[in-house]
Amino acid sequence: xxxxxxxxxxxxxxxxxxxxxxxxxxxxxxxxxxxxxxxxxxxxxxxxxxxxxxxxxxxxxxxxxxxxxxxxxxxxxxxxxxxxxxxxxxxxxxxxxxxxxxxxxxxxxxxxxxxxxxxxxxxxxxxxxxxxxxxxxxxxxxxxxxxxxxxxxxxxxxxxxxxxxxxxxxxxxxxxxxxxxxxxxxxxxxxxxxxxxxxxxxxxxxxxxxxxxxxxxxxxxxxxxxxxxxxxxxxxxxxxxxxxxxxxxxxxxxxxxxxxxxxxxxxxxxxxxxxxxxxxxxxxxxxxxxxxxxxxxxxxxxxxxxxxxxxxxxxxxxxxxxxxxxxxxxxxxx
Length: 334
Description:
Layout: H1 2-30, E1 33-39, H2 47-54, H3 57-60, E2 63-69, H4 73-81, E3 87-90, H5 93-100, E4 107-114, E5 119-123, E6 139-141, H6 148-159, E7 169-171, H7 179-184, E8 190-194, H8 197-204, E9 208-212, H9 213-217, E10 223-228, H10 229-234, H11 236-254, H12 258-265, H13 274-286, H14 298-310, H15 320-323, H16 327-332
Parallel strand pairs: 1-2, 1-3, 6-7, 6-8
Antiparallel strand pairs: 3-10, 4-10, 5-8, 5-9
Organism: Fictibacillus arsenicus
Protein name: SsuA/THI5-like domain-containing protein
Subcellular location: Periplasm
């Protein structure tokens, strides 16, 4: 009888401990706060974001990220403004466009992801040596008018004495998704491309990377995490945790090799060989495209507006403090 009683006691103790463990797991799970992110495109350029998800840096902070690719700046901002997303990952210029329309709930940049343009100049023929002068009189496949890639591209051209409107034939009536195909089919002497398409074309002999617009345009808040002002006020602690998770990923990316990063983010690019992902990551790391921390500084903001103004796309100058809030970013790096 004592033996049976002892077995029952042990069983009860085990069940009690197991139930407490389950309760603990349930409590931990219930603390996870969902943040819905709308990313403007799926790109190796956004490697730190995917690292933050895959390495569990967001999860460690109690954040459950729901990531959606919205394919285009207009669609991304529409998702954010209509409450289809909590946070948008897109170019900072979009916040200026929204503000110019006198929005009653402005969109605020709170954490920076990339700090240079992410496109490259690809030539159809490989030159013995490259000079920007070679673009004069050529046909150039550009990006969408008013978008950051196009504005940064024009800024780079002007920096080298090339007038985009008069010194070359600029083609801008092709959808973003079809620009690479148009070039591959024989349209244009030069094209402005994101990775991994630029490196893929180089591998296939379709084109040759001759310059980086990221290196030419300098540091700018090219891609940032942003949210509506109302959401930021109501979810301050959530976004603080989110930014901490992001910063952990930024540090991890800075301190690990391109090969290690490529291995982590490979699930997001199933149709891209991991060796190509590594090549692209290495190229972006070498030109310091990935922001080292989430702080968007005033010099970068002013450079962004200078580029927009040069392109004739700046509705009006906006003071740094109006659309940028570094409070969360500064807390994250402490």
